[in-house]
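Usage

Read records sequentially. Each one opens with the input sequence:
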Amino acid sequence: MGFKGLFSYKSPDIQIMIVIFDKDMVPDIHIFATGIHSKEWASCEGSINLLYWMSDCSLKRGMNVKGKIALITGSAKGLGKMTALSLADQGCHIALNYVHSRSEAEALQAQIIAKGVRCIAVQADISKAEEIHALVAAVETQLGHIDILVNNAGPFVRERRVFADYSEAEVQMLVQGNLLGPMILDQLVLPEMRRKQWGRIIHFGFSHAGEARSWPHRAVYAAAKVGLVSFTKTLAVEEAPYGITVNMVCPGDIRGANKEKTINDIANIPDKETPRGRPGSGEDIARVITYLCLDHSDFITGNIMDVSGGLDPIRPTI
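and closes with the structure output:
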């Protein structure tokens, strides 16, 4: 087999070398290629494989968020933790946030750093404006300007009570933490997102929040989140020209330890209440958020997305 020729091609996304040998008077083509998502040269034979490889490389390019800086509030445990891990797997640098769960946040920080990305953990209460400003300042100082903001944190009163039985302090806390806090955070990150012409903002709601239905015993929480629905849709329209998307994810009734489980962990566990037939997991929510944050998800904005397995958890009567 004799050497016949070498051809090469290089672009910002892909490098290709085509080596042609003469094997028994028949051209034998070997293709070696590497791209933005490959650390090593891969080889294939024939143009069909090359076209498939280039198509796959192009698809992955649209998914790339490597190096983006993501702040996930309330991320030491639960759905926030799963979201942080998922974005770290995509190559994002992560800013964790907690109020009381310092040990959990530090353990998660170490786990994320082991993935090869940077990670910090910052204590801040999202229901307090001064702490929100300090949180953003800390992230910008230690990691850089925020590209992805996931507003996961939000206070919730578990005890069932009619509105008349809430204290004024509880009303203030629920509205501050679930509506005003995310609004202030969004406002703080928008200038740099606009400058970069790129940003992803995620709000958290509850199943069927977009319908603004009654939710007895959850009056204040529901009112704050429904207000956030309108804000999500409005902000999405206002910021779309700047390459910034704004969406709301509304988890179903994902309980306890399931918030930190994968889909495989709970796939075979029956749940008679959920039409899908299985309970929800933290991965169900994290994978949706991660998809919304991808580069080529820029056409998805202003949406209120239920991720509930078809379950309607709201009781419309007392």
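Summary fields computed downstream for this record:
- The first strand starts at residue 2 and ends at 10.
- The CA atoms of residues 169 and 175 lie 10 Å apart.
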